[in-house]
């Protein structure tokens, strides 16, 4: 019994004295007899040297290998047979109730046969390698893990949930606005993006003619899915928030209840899929992570974008969903408009210490939105690359470009909060235009060298290496399979290594060193010397024939400045409502600047602020008042002026619906002092078309279509206001408010307020007595939205009225029935006098003052005494018996009123 353990200790000691052998003793098989075994424990070094098939990495030193081709143990060197405990998931625990388990296999038929032989019949087949069963922990331990057909067992949440919905949309934070100006032909045309979610609303005015039918789409339409599709490729018909990144791209939809990867053929040509949902926090490499890595390794043009989750308040390792632990996908967190991480944005590291999330993008509402924004950017990147090179942009190229172009945030270098930083659409597209991409492949032990040349005024050199790695085995403690390393050597022979992080101290800044867990490596040189730089890519270990990789690189030039927001065609505020910081890129060091604004094309300037810190690359400006104007910004640095493009300052006009009645809709909006006229636009097909210009702030239409209003000033248009909706007919028919009240002792006043006076011929007051209706007053000259009628002859008790609006076409629009109680010479009005047991008795008084209400049964017994303290009183009769009751009310002056009520 001691021999295997002794040998294990000896083997471990000879391999690496620093490793703790105790950790893996539980896996060593206790049998003394020698027989053919399928699985063994050995060192990674030994497995690599002998080319054994690794089925699970235990740590950076040890692994489980499979004897897949040899007939006996004798030809296996430095190995120990293992039991089946290694197949269990890291989150396995004892339980008596049945729970869901995912069983992985290489032989599906044999597995199903084996499970049925153990009386497990409730088997759901996911694919050719995975099934779901339900079992208690004892059966898993005693019967299932020992089956030769079982290669691993995992427990994962398969129920997705969305992680935000569209409320904000700001293209300036990720330089999408700048990319639109610099790359006007990139619109997403002929591109298809896939949204794995519920089905989006294909009739939404921002998604008209977007839908690519799919056999995998959900039957459930949700606002979350609609929001994600809108962020990716919305048409912008509804408002600035309805404009997507790739406006001409189409959208394929896939049901996220099938949480495993879709068959590539069902994606209808989409090469980027958005996953803005999560499950539970799951820090292990399960069947989902394995499945997504496998698909991306085999389909190199496909990119999966995952939201990190909204559980960041739980701290590090809070990423939601096992599939997000995959290596070849991209996980996105979210930042606010000041480029600060949102507190709820889930953090890394991945379960094995890898950098997650890889990147961030803007959203103050959730990581769903930031991920959809990134999906739109990637869609433009793929269109751009295909246009230039006539081949598809691969996933590793996509990741390398995005990561290398990102703005570093948080600690210097990557971290587990921001990843490699905030994505920059404009810089990503420029990387493609300028072909700052290197691709290659290598085998184990091979080193590839690539050379780039830097000019004398270069700074901030950044180089990123990415490769699509083979999927690790399910439940592997370390997911990296093929290990590549990068080093950068300068002209003076200085070697620069990539950034690495310590997952055990997750808030510790990155340091430089060799990376043995990530399939992304990044080298930066803040002040590079000029000349040639050699990028060495080293195949430290490659298990398959060869490993493809991609490199992206960039550098800045010293003492450069350019505006990011606002740029040409931008509006301030960006959505007409929300102030967003001015943004710029600057490579100046240790210099402050002066910021100014001009409203007359640079003829005169107003200083906004002195001593601007250029390193912040942003400044929040809140104007003292709302202006509608063209404007320019100027940053003055060392007596040199950097003037922005002309941009627009305008605000949403706050369109209001004032009438939806009798086939007519009337809208109205604000009238800013700077605005001379307004352009009316109407939705025609899938876009807004100019209808007419007006100087009014009221507009009526009868076609039931969707309209919007744009302010006109300085011979140009401002921002489009939020569009109208298709309102339900007669949902807003004139009356804003109408009520009747006793005005004095002998009059009833009827008050009314209207939303609109459109098309009104006259207004009548109708009095209703015993269902007979009589017009008692008429207004013929209507010039105000508020008016009053007086009834000088009210009757005692209830008085009922309604107001009729007679339109020019003689259509009558009536108010609801207006009711008030007139007491006349009575002191009190008691009602109802015939009431059910659970109905309260109401008593109105002529004047406020003290009075007491007494209620007697038919025998004269007092059953309720209640003070009347206000003009309107409600009395609960406390579930009395059916019958006749008498009441008496006595005021503080001795006045008496009597009567009777009947309870049924």
Description:
With about 900 residues, the chain is mostly beta strands. Helices cover about 10% and strands about 35% of the residues. The protein is built from ten helices and 59 strands. The protein has a seven-stranded parallel beta sheet, with helices on one face. Strand 49 (about 795-805) and strand 50 form a beta hairpin. Helix 5 (about 175-180) packs parallel to helix 10, helix 6 (about 225-235) packs parallel to helix 8 and helix 9 packs across helix 10. The chain is globular, with a radius of gyration of 37 Å. The chain starts with a helix and ends with a strand. About 40% of the residues are buried.
Main features:
904 residues, 10 helices, 6-stranded mixed β-sheet, globular
Low-confidence stretches: 1-19, 70-74
Q: What is the distance, rounded to the nearest whole angstrom, between the alpha carbons of the first and last residues?
A: 90 Å
Radius of gyration: 37 Å
Shape: globular
The helix-and-strand class reads: mainly beta
Could you give a short account of the major beta sheet?
7 strands, parallel
Number of strands: 59
Strand order of the largest sheet: 11-12-10-13-15-16-17
What is the percent of helical residues?
Answer: 10-25%
Q: How many DSSP helices?
A: 10
Mean pLDDT over the residues: 92
Tell me what portion of residues adopts beta-strand conformation.
35-45%
């Amino acid at each position: 019994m001691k021999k295997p353990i002794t040998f294990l200790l000896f083997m471990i000691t000879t391999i690496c004295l620093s490793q703790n052998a105790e950790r893996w003793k539980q896996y060593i098989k206790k049998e003394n007899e020698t027989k053919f075994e399928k699985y063994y424990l050995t060192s990674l070094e030994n497995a690599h040297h002998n080319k054994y098939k690794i089925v699970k990495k235990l740590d950076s030193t040890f692994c489980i290998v499979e004897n897949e081709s040899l007939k006996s143990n004798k030809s296996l060197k430095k190995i120990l047979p293992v039991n089946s405990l290694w197949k269990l998931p890291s989150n396995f625990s004892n339980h008596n109730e049945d729970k869901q388990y995912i069983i992985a296999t290489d032989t599906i038929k044999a597995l199903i046969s084996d499970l049925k032989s153990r009386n497990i019949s409730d088997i759901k087949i996911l694919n050719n390698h995975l099934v779901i069963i339900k079992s208690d922990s004892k059966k898993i331990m005693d019967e299932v893990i020992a089956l030769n057909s079982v290669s691993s067992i995992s427990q994962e949440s398969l129920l997705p949930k969305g992680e935000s919905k569209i409320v904000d949309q700001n293209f300036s934070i990720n330089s999408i606005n700048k990319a639109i100006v610099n790359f006007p032909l990139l619109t997403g045309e002929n591109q298809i993006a896939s949204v794995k979610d519920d089905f989006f609303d294909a009739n939404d005015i921002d998604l008209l003619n977007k839908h690519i039918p799919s056999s995998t789409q959900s039957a459930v339409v949700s606002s979350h899915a609609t929001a994600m599709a809108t962020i990716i490729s919305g048409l912008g018909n509804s408002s600035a928030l309805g404009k997507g990144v790739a406006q001409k791209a189409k959208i394929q939809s896939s049901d996220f209840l099938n949480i495993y990867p879709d068959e590539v053929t069902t994606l209808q040509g989409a090469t980027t899929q958005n996953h803005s949902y999560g499950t539970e926090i799951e820090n292990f490499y399960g069947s989902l992570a394995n499945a997504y890595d496998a698909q991306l390794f085999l389909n190199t043009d496909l990119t999966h974008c995952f939201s990190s989750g909204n559980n960041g308040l739980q701290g590090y390792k809070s990423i939601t969903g096992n599939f997000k632990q995959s290596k070849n996908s991209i996980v996105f967190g979210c930042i606010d408009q000041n480029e600060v991480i949102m507190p709820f944005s889930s953090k890394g590291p991945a379960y094995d210490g890898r950098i997650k999330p890889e990147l961030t993008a803007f959203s103050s509402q959730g990581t769903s939105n930031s991920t959809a924004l990134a999906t739109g950017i990637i869609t433009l990147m793929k269109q751009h690359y295909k246009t230039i090179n006539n081949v598809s942009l691969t996933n590793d190229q996509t990741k390398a470009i995005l990561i290398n172009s990102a703005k570093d945030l948080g600690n210097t270098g990557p971290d587990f909060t921001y990843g490699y930083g905030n994505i920059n659409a404009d810089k990503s597209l420029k990387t493609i235009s300028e072909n700052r991409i290197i691709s290659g492949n290598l085998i184990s032990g091979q080193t590839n060298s690539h050379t780039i040349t830097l000019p004398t005024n270069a700074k901030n050199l950044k180089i990123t290496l990415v490769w699509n790695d083979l999927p690790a085995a399910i439940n592997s403690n370390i997911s990296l399979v093929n290990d590549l390393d990068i080093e950068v050597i300068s002209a003076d022979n200085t070697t620069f290594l990539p950034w690495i992080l310590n997952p055990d101290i997750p808030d510790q800044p990155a340091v430089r060193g060799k990376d043995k867990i990530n399939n992304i490596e990044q080298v930066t040189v803040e002040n590079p010397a000029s000349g040639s730089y050699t990028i060495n890519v080293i195949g430290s270990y490659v298990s398959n024939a060869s490993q493809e990789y991609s490199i992206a690189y960039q550098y800045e030039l010293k003492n450069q400045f350019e505006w990011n927001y606002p740029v040409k065609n931008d509006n301030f505020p960006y959505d007409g409502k929300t102030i967003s910081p001015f943004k710029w890129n600057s490579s100046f060091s240790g210099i402050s600047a002066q910021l100014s604004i001009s409203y007359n094309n640079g003829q005169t300037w107003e200083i906004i602020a002195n001593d601007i810190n250029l390193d912040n690359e942003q400044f929040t400006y809140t104007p003292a008042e709302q202006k509608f104007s063209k404007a320019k910004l100027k940053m003055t640095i060392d007596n040199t002026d950097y003037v922005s493009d002309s941009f627009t300052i305008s605000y949403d006009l706050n369109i209001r619906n004032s009438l939806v009645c009798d086939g007519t809709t009337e809208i109205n909006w604000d009238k800013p002092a700077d605005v001379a006229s307004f352009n009316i636009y109407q939705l025609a097909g899938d876009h807004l078309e100019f209808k007419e210009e007006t100087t009014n702030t009221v507009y009526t239409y009868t076609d039931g279509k969707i309209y919007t209003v744009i302010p006109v000033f300085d011979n140009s248009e401002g921002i489009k206001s939020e569009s109208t909706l298709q309102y339900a007919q007669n949902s807003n028919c004139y009356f804003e408010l109408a009520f009747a009240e006793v005005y004095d002792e002998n009059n009833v006043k009827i008050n009314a307020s209207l939303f609109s006076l459109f098309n009104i011929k006259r207004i009548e007051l109708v009095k209703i007595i015993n269902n007979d209706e009589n017009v008692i007053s008429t207004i013929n000259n209507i010039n105000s939205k508020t008016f009053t009628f007086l009834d000088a002859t009210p009757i005692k008790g209830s008085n009922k009225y309604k107001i009729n609006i007679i339109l020019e076409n003689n259509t009558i629009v009536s108010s609801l029935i207006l009711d008030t109680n007139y007491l006349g010479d009575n002191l009190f009005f008691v009602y109802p006098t015939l009431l059910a047991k659970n109905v309260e008795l109401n008593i109105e008084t002529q004047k406020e003052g003290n009075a007491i209400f007494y209620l007697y049964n038919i025998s004269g017994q007092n059953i309720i005494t209640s003070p009347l303290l206000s003009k309107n009183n409600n009395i609960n009769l406390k579930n009395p018996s059916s019958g006749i009751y008498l009441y008496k009310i006595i005021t503080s002056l001795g006045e008496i009123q009597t009567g009777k009520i009947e309870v049924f």
